[in-house]
Amino acid sequence: MFYKDERLALFIDGANLYAAGKALGFDIDYKLLRQEFMRRGKLLRAFYYTALLENEEYSPIRPLVDWLHYNGYNMVTKTAKEYTDSMGRRKVKGNMDIELAVDAMELAPRLDHAVLFSGDGDFRPLVESLQRQGVRVSVVSTIRSQPPMISDDLRRQADNFIELDELRDVIGRPPREPRFEREPDAEMSTN
């Protein structure tokens, strides 16, 4: 599936990979992920794409973004847009598909193998275009979740489909236990 002398790049759809890992019950250890693909070939770039909320004092993803940036990942971020839908619900939109596709197309002439961490069927035309340029494409996602996290069209288009659950022992760590607020001391009542 991988050749030691091939030039490869990782294209990680952050929200999609997070959701797939969560659906399978594990967190991704990004240091181990990068090491695993450095072992599989000549890793030229590891891109990570995510949207960040503006106007938030603290974003839970900010520490991850900073860590990835300082540990060899090319971070591609943009500000997510907040809006209210027709039902009055607050929604956040932060699609990074175009940024990922542009980077993959620009890097294609220098790649032998692209590894896409996403199950989004919108990437099928990108995979097809990379293949026409002579780039082999592996897609990492899961069919073991309910529902499956990968589009059937994308899985069929890829040269290789890598089941994320089969990488669990190599790049996974158990999910962190949720932190519970300490309950206030109950008032003692006297009769």
Label this structure with key terms.
about 190 residues, alpha/beta, Rossmann fold, seven-stranded mixed sheet, about 30% helix, disordered C terminus
Short account of what is shown:
This protein is 32% helix and 28% strand. The C terminus is likely disordered.
Could you explain how this protein is built, in words?
The protein has 191 residues and is α/β, with parallel strands linked by helices. It has one domain (7-81, 90-146, 153-171): Rossmann fold, CATH 3.40.50.1010. It contains seven helices and nine strands, in the order βαβαβαββαβαβαβαβ. It has helices at residues 14-24, 30-40, 62-70, 97-107, 124-132, 152-157, 168-171, and strands at 7-13, 27-28, 42-53, 74-84, 90-93, 113-117, 136-141, 160-163, 172-173. Strands 5-4-3-1-6-7-8 form a seven-stranded mixed β-sheet. The chain has a two-stranded antiparallel sheet with strand order 2-9. β7, α6 (152-157) and β8 form a beta-alpha-beta unit. The longest helix has 11 residues, at 14-24. It is globular, with a radius of gyration of 19 Å. The termini are far apart. The model is unreliable at 181-191 (pLDDT under 50). Residues 7-165 form the NYN domain. Pfam families: NYN. One of its GO terms (molecular function) is RNA nuclease activity. Residues 172-185 have a biased composition (Basic and acidic residues). Residues 172-191 are annotated as: Disordered.
